[in-house]
Automatic annotation (TrEMBL), chain A:
Coiled coil: none annotated. This is Odorant receptor. The lineage of its organism: Eukaryota, Metazoa, Ecdysozoa, Arthropoda, Hexapoda. Pfam families: 7tm_6. One of its GO terms (cellular component) is plasma membrane. Belongs to the insect chemoreceptor superfamily. Heteromeric odorant receptor channel (TC 1.A.69) family. Orco subfamily. It is a multi-pass membrane protein. It comes from Zophobas morio. It is found in: Cell membrane. GO terms for biological process: signal transduction.
From TrEMBL, chain B:
One of its GO terms (molecular function) is olfactory receptor activity. It is found in: Cell membrane. The keyword Zinc does not apply. One of its GO terms (cellular component) is plasma membrane. Its main location: membrane. This is Odorant receptor. It is a multi-pass membrane protein. One of its GO terms (biological process) is signal transduction. Belongs to the insect chemoreceptor superfamily. Heteromeric odorant receptor channel (TC 1.A.69) family. Keywords: Cell membrane, Membrane, Olfaction, Receptor, Sensory transduction, Transducer, Transmembrane, Transmembrane helix.
Length: 475, 379
């Protein structure tokens, strides 16, 4: 039996993966022991989960159809059905496209490395790990809290719904219905006693697992984005030492300190005294000429290396090769990050599109429901709860998508902010290529329909507010 | 070369802020001296106490829509004002550093260049005067309307606030009246000066971009590389300066945008409720004008920065670069690549200070007003 060893993203995201497997998603890889019996057992568990989810969803849907007479009930049931559509969609989506997920998880299995940048790489890797764990805890807490809140609110208030009075067509009476988390139709009578208890437990299981399905997949997506962002930070950080190293590759290093010597009498140029700002203690952190000209000063130090076999610029052959390999490492690592982001987009883009479609309809209906709020009661609490949960789900992936866009577009600024003008031709060419390549930010799109960013969240929020205001005016 | 030419444009602002206790002398932040005591006194007794009493009043009258709308819209502005003052004080050190940087040699200008940026300086001055005039008239009307309309309402205060003591009889009435007048003038003065100070900073960044463009156009061919490197350093300094300024007023701009649409909407709503030809009506009109102008200040100068910084790339081509060395031309390519991304001022990168945002805010406030009107009319 092959020894089970995990590396790369799979190792980092192991808690996520285990939770996803535990909740019944069709993730059948990443087990130490994948023999026939255990595999069939796990497959069976997933299928059973699928069957339960679909059954309950079907019962919800049947209830929707049965209660379509009353407008209020129709709206409320449609919202519930749409809410759980998210969860079923994500479940089925993962089962159908699990290959793409495995591919994305395996993309970082063999990253390149360079002795000069190992320390920085490890530091950002650790940072990414910390953030991914923190996100996972937050998601777990949030899901559990929502499930518990849902369960507890079931026991508040009356468990009734209004129907037409059988005697008088124009009146409505309230008829008791089973006290359950979700209104559904069952072929048995679930009003009280043992059937009620069992149905209640089944519904608690259903709600908790449905929420877990949706949220865990979203958090897997966001964890990938966190990892990509931290890699981009690593690349930005090593840009400066890379510049300084490559400045030693050419023979002529223009001394920019000479630019700031005292001018001739006819010159009208204004100059910064070399130590003007270092005299002013307060400004050290803000703007310092010394920092700007630092490359020149460091360059001199590096040129004193190597006594024997010295090249024209004071470096040995070995050091030259190391510098060239450092540039190669940067470029290869950047390409790797681009591959990762593309894979993430391929794996999860369609799921995001479906999510946004369902959310749009659901939020419209929620805006309508919100106009009927009369006071602080169970109805208001449920409507606001649904609203907050839906908006939080959209916010969850929008904020990480936005961070990716920002990080990738600031690589160019990082390249520009080091003293490339003091550098060699090779350094300038490298900076130019980097600037041109990083002009376009990397972003995740929902199957090319829209970009995942905070603009999307703002437009969703704006749309909800607009629908609400329009519906209030129509009342 | 006049070294203090930039700080002069902010001189009046800083003077008024010093009067209000918000600008410690010299290069220091608040130390344990008399000025700090004075500052604490002004801030707690006048600014905070007044706002607090208005906030408490909201809790007292929140069921009555009429009284509520009357209190809320001025309270929101005052609370926002306090928040702005808090963040201003918190970031005083950054601001002092920024003003110190303005004195550095990097940001100096030749007399010809000062002529180029003169229109912007004058524009800022004019806009400030107009805004100050609007705010002043608004406050005059507001503080005097109980005196002019007193026949119908008895002993009324200019602002509905809650006080723990009886304010309808003298001497309580006169003292509270005076306190309210002083507080509202102090609040309005601090608000006005904070906004114009921030706009002044943005205007100066725009002016620096113009100076850089002029420098780039006039690079002499024989010393191209050296002068170009100086321009690159100037550009980097401008970028750093604008980033630091943006950091400074991030929260202030965010709070401003967050509340401005609601504020304008409620003012419009109040205008439909109050009877015209009363002094309250005219004070509300001036208040509306002041609110609209306040947002305009931020958005206009932010927009100017974006436009001017995107012109820097073009300015390089107007220089005599064909005679420069290959190495310098390569540097030019990288420089132009960077300049294609203009400097955008924002509030936490969520809301950008541009004219599009301004239009969006005006539209939003109109729609909120329409909703409020609809809710109110059937009653």
């Amino acid at each position: 039996m092959m020894k089970f060893k995990v590396s790369g993203l799979v190792a980092d995201l192991m808690p996520n993966i285990r939770l996803i497997q535990g909740s019944g998603h069709f993730m059948l890889n990443y087990h130490a022991d994948n023999s026939g019996a255990l595999h069939t057992l796990r497959l069976g568990y997933c299928c059973v989960t699928l069957v339960f989810m679909l059954l309950q969803y079907g019962c919800n849907f049947v209830n929707l159809v049965l209660e379509r007479g009353d407008v209020n009930d129709l709206a409320a049931n449609t919202i519930t059905v749409l809410f759980f559509t998210h969860c079923i969609t994500k479940f089925v989506y993962f089962a159908v496209r699990s290959k793409l997920f495995y591919r994305t998880l395996g993309i970082w299995n063999q990253p390149n490395s360079h002795p000069l940048f190992v320390e920085s790489n490890n530091r950002y890797h650790a940072l990414a790990l910390k953030k991914m764990r923190r996100l996972l805890y937050i998601i777990i807490v949030w899901t559990s809290f929502s499930a518990i809140a849902w369960t507890s609110i079931t026991f508040v208030g009356e468990s009734v719904h209004t129907t037409k009075d059988p005697e008088n067509e124009n009146l409505t009476i309230s008829e008791p219905i089973p006290r359950l988390l979700v209104r559904a139709w069952y072929p048995w009578n679930a009003m009280s006693g043992m059937p009620h208890m069992l149905t209640l437990i089944f519904q608690v299981y259903y709600v908790f697992f449905a929420l877990a399905h949706a949220n865990l997949l979203d958090s897997l997506f966001c964890s990938w984005l966190i990892f990509a962002c931290e890699q981009l930070q690593h690349l930005k950080e090593i840009m400066k030492p890379l510049m300084e190293l490559s400045a030693t590759l050419d023979t002529y290093v223009p001394k920019s300190a000479d630019l700031f010597r005292a001018p001739s009498a006819t010159s009208q140029d204004n100059l910064i005294e070399n130590d003007y700002n270092s005299k002013n203690e307060d400004l050290k952190g803000v703007y310092s000429t010394r920092q700007e000209l630092g490359g020149h000063f460091r360059g001199a130090a590096l040129q004193n290396f190597g006594a024997g076999g010295v090249g024209p610029n004071g470096l040995t052959k070995k050091q030259e090769l190391m510098v060239r390999s450092a540039i190669k490492y940067w470029v290869e690592r950047h390409k790797h990050v681009v591959r990762l982001v593309t894979a993430i987009g391929d794996a999860y883009g369609v799921a995001l599109l479906l999510h946004m479609l369902t959310s749009t309809i659901m939020l419209t209906l929620l805006a309508y429901q919100a106009t009927k709020i009369t006071g602080v009661d169970k109805y208001a609490a449920t409507v606001i709860g649904y609203l907050l949960f839906a908006l939080a789900q959209v916010f969850h992936f929008c904020i990480f998508g936005n961070r990716l866009i920002e990080e990738s577009s600031s690589v160019m600024e990082a390249a520009y902010s080091c003293h490339w003008y003091d550098g060699s031709e090779e350094a300038k060419t490298f900076v130019q290529i980097v600037c041109q390549q990083c002009q376009k930010a990397m972003s995740i799109s929902g199957a090319k329909f829209f970009t995942i960013s905070l603009d999307l969240f703002a437009s969703v929020l704006g749309a909800v507010v607009t629908y609400f205001m329009v519906l209030v005016q129509l009342k | 070369m006049e070294k203090l030419v930039w700080k002069d444009s902010l001189k009046i602002n800083l003077f008024v802020l010093r009067l209000l206790g918000l600008w410690p002398r010299g290069d220091k932040v608040y130390t344990f001296d008399l000025y700090t005591v004075y500052a604490v006194f002004v801030i707690t007794c006048f600014l905070s106490a007044h706002t607090l009493s208005q906030v408490l009043n909201i809790f007292v009258v929140y069921s009555d829509l009429q009284n509520l709308s009357e209190t809320i819209f001025i309270t929101v502005t005052n609370v926002l004002n306090l928040v702005k003052i808090y963040y201003f004080i918190k970031n005083t050190k950054t601001l002092k550093q920024l003003i110190e940087i303005l004195r550095s040699d990097m940001f100096q200008a030749t007399p010809l260049q000062i002529k180029i940026v003169q229109p912007d300086l004058i524009f800022l001055k004019n806009v400030t005067l107009v805004l100050a005039g609007t705010v002043g008239s608004c406050l005059t009307f507001w503080c005097s309307f109980p005196l002019l309309d007193s026949s119908s309402r008895g002993n009324r205060l200019p602002f509905l606030s809650w006080y723990p003591f009886d304010t309808t009889t003298s001497p309580g009435y006169e003292l509270t009246y005076l306190h309210q007048v002083i507080s509202i003038w102090a609040l309005a003065a601090s608000n006005l000066n904070l906004d114009t100070l921030i706009s002044g900073l943005m205007m100066l960044i725009g002016a620096q971009c113009d100076i850089l463009c002029d420098n780039l156009r006039n690079i002499k061919a024989e010393r191209f590389s050296q002068e170009f490197v100086k321009c690159i350093l100037h550009h980097k300094a401008i970028l750093k300066f604008s980033e630091k300024s943006n950091e400074f007023f991030n929260m202030i701009a965010f709070g401003q945008f967050f509340t401005s649409a609601a504020c304008i909407a409620m003012t419009l709503f109040r205008l439909t409720v109050v009877s015209p030809m009363s002094s309250e009506f005219s004070s509300l009109t001036f208040y509306l004008g002041a609110a609209i102008q306040e947002i305009f200040l931020y958005c206009w100068f932010g927009n100017e920065i974006e436009i001017k910084s995107s012109q820097i790339g073009y300015a390089v081509f107007e220089s005599d670069w064909t005679a420069a060395s290959l190495s310098a031309q390569k540097s030019m390519v990288i420089f132009v690549l960077r300049c294609q991304k203009p400097i955008k001022m924002s509030a936490f990168k969520l809301v950008y200070l541009t004219l599009e945002t301004y239009v969006a805010i005006l539209r939003a406030s109109w729609s909120y007003f329409a909703v409020l009107n609809k809710i109110n009319t059937p009653e």
